[in-house]
């Protein structure tokens, strides 16, 4: 967290030099709708930090703020020690951003799109050619470089968007749902490349996703729900925060079974997506007790170690895919 100091009656927040991205108590409204609520987190240098959240959680709004497309309404933020509110031009030079919305010129070839992007950043000549070839190679686009962007599939277009964000060798990459539309092979290659950028070039990567398997690959994760950060930590630490094993109980008599389990075992199962869900330190033993106690009410029970989806349910009471846009 930033240190707050008093200077001439003005509160100044000092940034923590150890962080590459610092977000401190950011809130953002669209009219009456509160899209981000007092959000704070820090991303360390050369870290891959994931923001996991369902649609409407506020991920895109945060990206638009960090990439200087939206002005900050309240709170403070910095990237590589530069203040977002006052040094947006310098920040733009050192970040690479890929948004969900398409930005390619469909009437230009892949290579022309990349050249255009390079020129915007003042890159030309041999350096430009080298950067473009490198990005094409790592994103599996070399044999499509002369094809019109309009002729590409959604997944290939996505890869060109990502290539565009990498051409000026940014220190910090902001990737908003980069895997959307990519098949599993392309997703695997993208992650291999992101980890290479992290390892060899020390790039810091902030990525948003709603895919659990992608979230698993991040060094640390923030779980964003209705504009608030409900959990923060490594995937392992987050999973460990869920108490023991997770049981999902199917029944035709959910309300009755919920009451009876609560009375008999003094634990309150949550009703999530037409089933009962509870956490127990020794799930396999409890499962047997449960079936012995209510053989007529229990249709089936599944038992598993906590997943990131369980972390989300644990923190919000909602199933990830059913979390509503209610902010
Ligand atoms: N321009 C806008 N005007 C009004 N409300 C908006 C606007 N943009 C976003 N919102 C609302 O703000 C909230 C957060 O939206 P945001 O797009 O940041 O979420 P998200 O997590 O990126 O979702 P998605 O993955 O669907 O893009 C949502 O409730 C959304 O409806």
UniProtKB/TrEMBL annotation:
Residues of the signal peptide: none
Record key words, sorted: ATP-binding, Nucleotide-binding
InterPro entries reported in the protein's UniProt record: AAA+_ATPase, ABC_transporter-like_ATP-bd, P-loop_NTPase
Gene3D superfamilies registered for this protein in UniProt: P-loop containing nucleotide triphosphate hydrolases (3.40.50.300)
Residue ranges constituting the ABC transporter domain according to the UniProt record: 21-251
Family matches, as PROSITE patterns: ABC_TRANSPORTER_2
Lipid biosynthesis as UniProt keyword: no
Protein name per the record: Putative ABC transporter ATP-binding protein YbhF
UniProt organism field: Gimesia aquarii
Gene that produces this protein: ybhF_3
């Amino acid at each position: 967290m930033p240190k707050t100091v008093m200077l001439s009656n003005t509160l100044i927040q000092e940034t923590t030099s150890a962080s590459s991205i610092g977000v401190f108590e950011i809130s953002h409204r669209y009219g009456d709708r509160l899209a981000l609520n007092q959000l704070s987190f820090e991303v360390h240098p050369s870290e891959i930090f994931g923001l996991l959240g369902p649609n409407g959680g506020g991920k895109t709004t945060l990206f638009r703020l960090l990439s200087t497309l939206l002005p900050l309404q309240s709170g403070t933020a910095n990237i590589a020690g530069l203040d977002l509110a006052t040094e947006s031009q310098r920040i733009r030079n050192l970040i690479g951003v890929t948004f969900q919305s398409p930005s390619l010129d469909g009437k230009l070839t892949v290579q022309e799109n990349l050249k255009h992007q390079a020129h915007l950043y003042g890159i030309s000549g041999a350096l430009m050619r080298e950067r473009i070839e490198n990005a094409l190679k790592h994103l599996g686009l070399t044999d499509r470089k002369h094809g019109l962007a309009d002729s590409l599939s959604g997944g290939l277009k996505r890869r060109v968007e990502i290539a565009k964000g990498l051409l000026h060798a940014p220190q910090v990459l902001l990737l908003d749902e980069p895997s959307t539309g990519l098949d599993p092979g392309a997703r695997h290659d993208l992650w291999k490349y992101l980890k290479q950028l992290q390892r060899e070039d020390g790039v810091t990567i902030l990525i948003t996703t709603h895919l659990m398997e992608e979230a698993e690959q991040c060094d640390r994760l923030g779980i964003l729900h209705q504009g608030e950060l409900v959990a923060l930590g490594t995937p392992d630490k987050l999973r460990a925060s869920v108490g023991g094993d997770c049981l999902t109980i199917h029944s035709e008599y959910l309300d009755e079974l919920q009451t009876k389990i609560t009375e008999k075992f003094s634990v309150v199962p949550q009703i999530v997506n037409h089933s009962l869900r509870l956490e127990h330190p020794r799930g396999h033993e409890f499962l047997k007790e449960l079936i012995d106690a209510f053989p007529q009410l229990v249709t089936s029970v599944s038992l598993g170690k906590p997943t990131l989806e369980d972390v989300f349910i644990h923190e919000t009471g909602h199933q990830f895919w059913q979390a509503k846009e209610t902010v």
